[in-house]
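Dear colleague,

Following up on yesterday's call, I've attached the two folding results inline so they're easy to grep. Please treat them as preliminary; we haven't cross-checked anything against experimental data yet. The first protein's sequence and structure tokens come first.
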Amino acid sequence: MMDVITGQSAPTLTFDTSAGRRPDAIWQLEDQPEMDTPALRFLACPANPRQAEELLAYTHYLGNTLAADLRFFWPSGSTRATLAALFQEAQLNSDLVILGEPEQSLLERLVQGTAAFQAVDHASTSLLLVRRPRWPLRKLLLVARGTAADETAVSWVMRLARPAHASVTVLALLPPVPALYSPEAHLQQSLALLATPAMSLGRELAAMAQHLQASGIPSTLHLRQGTPAWQVGCELVEGDYDLIALAAGPVGWWRRWLHSDVLGPLVRLANRPLLIVKREA
């Protein structure tokens, strides 16, 4: 099912559904599995007109992969007004907002902040920030903080990975170790965190492994040294992922800064679609 929600007259668009598709891939709708759960509801907003064709094609791919109901919201007015209207609409009957980042002038960025952070802080539903989309999905990155909120991100990643036959890499964010510790000591402490079931990180990773294994999803666990931002930055450079997912963290830049949360660096650094999960799939 597809609905269109407009803040203005919807433009007439024709688009190539293979835009951004991998050249060696064959996408066949009859390969999609039957879903035994309620259909997801996607609300997509091509906020950047120059990227509208690509975002619409990507949205259709995701919608067909997950057998989701699709609706589209056409931007009207300023970036702030568009986002406010979009998220007000999303509160009613949407599980995921798919947003192509709007273009902003330097003055808008200085006065209002970047559109990406506005969207992250004001969305009450899960949010997919679309940047350089590529499909079909083959490699997904799940960033795990070792908290109970990670479970909501796992549910989305599993729902994406199964029909797409994608592999999942779990990056377990480890707390930074003081500089006086040697790399060997850092590694020993990291392994101790994982091996102790009573520790939050070890407990959450064990649960993730069980979920992924039970679903038959190929998965690997990555550990890195350094601050959380450094760990994520290195993983993005080396991994070449098609989509990055994590649970939503603190709201507001000062809370993210206070907790050294990784969401801020991810929003700034990620050059692929970024799924910020606020509700279970």
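Below is the second protein, in the same order (sequence, then structure):
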Amino acid sequence: MNTGNAMNDPHQEAGGPLYQHLEASIALLHRYYRQYQTFLRKQFDISPAEMDLIAYLARQGGSKMRVVCGHFGYKLSTFTSMVDRAEADGIVVRVASPMDRRVTLLMLTERGNTIYREYSEHIRGAARLLHAQWEVQPMHHFFKGLEALSDHLQQL
């Protein structure tokens, strides 16, 4: 009797073919992430965390430092160190809020905006290549798979 439980299917058990394929896929994703890190360092001399900050500020505009910190889930001291580096690298600038001078806003500099534009164009180019090669249905399955993976990884 099949209950739909992966443990009842020898192909899906730990060590089974699907499990081995999953492990290999995770290792491949990790390799691609390392390549992404290398790309960001070579192309822009920034870290993935700095790219996340740039993308957030590009989409949200000037934002309160505490709000941005909360979005990423960093401790304030850790986030402050990251912003110190990004500010020293000319990526972001801290400004006092015109509404409340006690509040610090983070804003992208021209360099931060340029990095975001160039990075976005790189991503658009990759998306164009994939879009040209995939049919609609496999692309839809890919998106659903990425959403499920993202949901599960957030729970770890």
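For the second protein, one point worth flagging: The chain has a mean pLDDT of 88.

Best wishes,
A.L.
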